[in-house]
């Protein structure tokens, strides 16, 4: 049996109006086309749906039984069509993604606020993870993409740089510190500092860059989490060594960043996607928002 929506629309139209002519007019088709659709449906169902005369069209008991089922089917089809249209227009749906803890704290709140304002009906599922877990979690879960800092290439992954952050000395907004345009790594070595632990990706990048110039970083404190470094800096315990992009100004309004030079080191924040996977319309809209916001961050 291959009942079509056109047949069901013709049937419900004739049932409600008791007229093939009026039903055809409502559907925007000819009377003969509407009559043919009814005949085809009767053949498909194996029952007579209307008793026809030159003056009237009367539904049979079978039509009475079929009408409400047909209405439900048409309503479900309309609901499905509207839902798919909303998904296609990014007016509904869900976006699930993974973000490194630093990006989730410092960069993505702006993206989330912008996206929520434009797409209030879309559910957002952001999983903030340690940087080392970014790629494994993207591979192992239903996340559509990931945002964070990674190094090198990964099999079956595309990587797009969204923004870059200069490695900086982050300190309290004192007159002396605010007056500096930049600090060299040699100058930084004379001051109390807070750096990420050696096993973190940021620290490994710093150690490689400094080692290539015969320099060595010996921080006063070592921490695992970016927010820990910033909170300690806010208490005056030392200068945090982090990308400037990792400083959320609204969360730490007393802190400012000054770039580190000789050498200057940059760290990208990237979008990661699995090759061959099409992003949902909701995810596409979120990525577009992230590109726009982070391009000027």
Automatic annotation (TrEMBL):
A matching Pfam family: HTH_1
Entry GO MF terms: DNA binding; DNA-binding transcription factor activity
Keywords on record: DNA-binding, Transcription, Transcription regulation
Source species, domain of life: Bacteria
Keyword Membrane: no
HTH lysR-type domain location: 3-60
A Gene Ontology cellular-component term: cytosol
Membership in a protein family: Belongs to the LysR transcriptional regulatory family.
Task of the protein: NodD regulates the expression of the nodABCFE genes which encode other nodulation proteins. NodD is also a negative regulator of its own expression. Binds flavonoids as inducers.
Name of the protein in question: LysR family transcriptional regulator
Annotated source species: Bradyrhizobium japonicum
């Amino acid at each position: 049996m291959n009942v079509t929506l056109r047949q069901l629309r013709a049937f419900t139209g004739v049932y409600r109006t008791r007229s093939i002519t009026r039903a055809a007019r409502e559907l925007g088709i000819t009377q003969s086309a509407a009559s043919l659709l009814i005949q085809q449906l009767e053949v498909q169902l194996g029952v007579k749906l209307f008793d026809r005369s030159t003056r009237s069209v009367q539904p049979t008991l079978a039509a009475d039984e079929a009408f409400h089922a047909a209405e439900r089917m048409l309503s479900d089809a309309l609901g499905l069509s509207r839902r798919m249209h909303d998904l296609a227009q990014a007016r509904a749906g869900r976006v699930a993604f993974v973000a490194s803890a630093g990006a989730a704290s410092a960069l993505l709140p702006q993206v989330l606020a912008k996206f929520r304002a434009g797409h209030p009906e879309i559910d957002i599922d952001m999983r903030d993870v340690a940087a080392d877990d970014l790629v494994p979690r993207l591979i192992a879960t239903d996340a559509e993409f990931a945002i964070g800092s990674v190094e090198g290439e990964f099999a079956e992954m595309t990587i797009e740089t969204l923004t870059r952050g200069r490695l900086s000395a982050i300190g309290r907004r004192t007159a002396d510190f605010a007056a500096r345009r930049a600090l060299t790594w040699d100058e930084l070595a004379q001051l109390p500092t807070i750096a990420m632990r050696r096993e973190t990706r940021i620290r490994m990048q710093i150690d490689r860059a400094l080692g290539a110039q015969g320099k060595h970083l010996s921080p006063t404190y070592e921490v695992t989490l970016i927010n820990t470094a910033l909170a300690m800096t806010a208490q005056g315990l030392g200068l945090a060594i982090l990308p400037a992009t990792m400083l959320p100004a609204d969360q730490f309004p007393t802190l400012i960043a000054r770039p580190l030079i000789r050498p200057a080191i940059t760290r990208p924040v990237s979008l990661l996607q699995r090759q061959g996977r099409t992003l949902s319309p909701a995810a596409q809209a979120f990525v577009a928002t992230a590109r726009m916001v982070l391009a000027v961050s």
